[in-house]
Amino acid sequence: MKNSSFIKTYKKKRTPKIISLIAMIVLAFIVACFGMYTYYNNKNNAFEVTTIEDYKEALNNDLYLKISADKLYDLDVTLKETTSKLGIPISESIKSHLVAIKLDPFVLTVALPKKEYNNLINKKEGPFILEGHLFELNDNDLVILRDAIKNNTELSNGMDLKPYLQYLQYESPIIEASFFLMIACLCFVYTIFLYMIGVRKNSIALKSLKDFSMENIENVYKQIDYEYSLPISYKNGPITITENYIIVYTQKIVLALPLKELVWIYKQTIKKKACMFIPVGKTTSLVLVFSDKNTYNVDLVKGDNVIDETIDYISKNCSTAFVGYCENFQTLLKKDPNKLIFKWKMNKESYKETNI
Question: What CATH number has the domain bearing residue 344?
Answer without folding.
Answer: 2.30.29
